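Feature request, filed as a ticket because there's no other form

It would be nice if the structure record came with a short human-readable summary line next to the tokens. Right now we just get the raw output. Example of a typical job, pasted below so the devs can see what we mean:
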Amino acid sequence: MLWLPTRTRRVLIRRPGTHDVLNLQMMYRNRAVRKYLGGLMSKSCDAIWANVRATSCSDFQPLVVQSRARRAFLGVSGFREWNHEEHSVEIYCFLRQAWWRSGFGTEVIRELIRQAIKNRSVKHIFGLIDPRNRASIALVQSLGFTLRGTYGVEGRQFGHHVYSLSRHGGLTMRSSRPPGKLFASTNRCRAAAA
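Raw output as currently delivered:
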């Protein structure tokens, strides 16, 4: 169970409300933000909000990221179940363009990792990142994630890279790669080309 709201030094992560719809629509309609979403995230704003309502009692509901100081809407984050049997989750954080390169993304991802370790029986954490999104790749690599493959479903590839962090390799929040063997693949991930 995820305890909400959760706070970091500068960020509040909370459940979304109807007053967040306009901010969600503005963020998802921004061309710079959508450039990196592609694939399965190319949903309409109505579909996104329908998903928020459908998952309102779930740990996998999209969460709002808000600045504690200014109470500004920064973006969305949360968990998606990756593989229930293997205790795997995907974590994500999409910020409005105005808040890129401000350190908020790192703060949010660190908190999501902390929550996954503390409140869940999570053994593997994954992140899907567009390979053109160099800032996000640098962020997850600085936290110890490693490239595991390319994301695909039922033989269809979406082009996003799969990065992972594994409890077997010391699931922690450090700035170097975790030692040991990492979880290599799931039915949704094919090995990265050498």
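Something like this underneath would help us a lot:
Confidence is low (pLDDT under 50) at residues 170-194.
Strands lie at 6-7, 11-14, 63-67, 73-83, 88-95, 124-129, 146-153, 156-166, 189-191.
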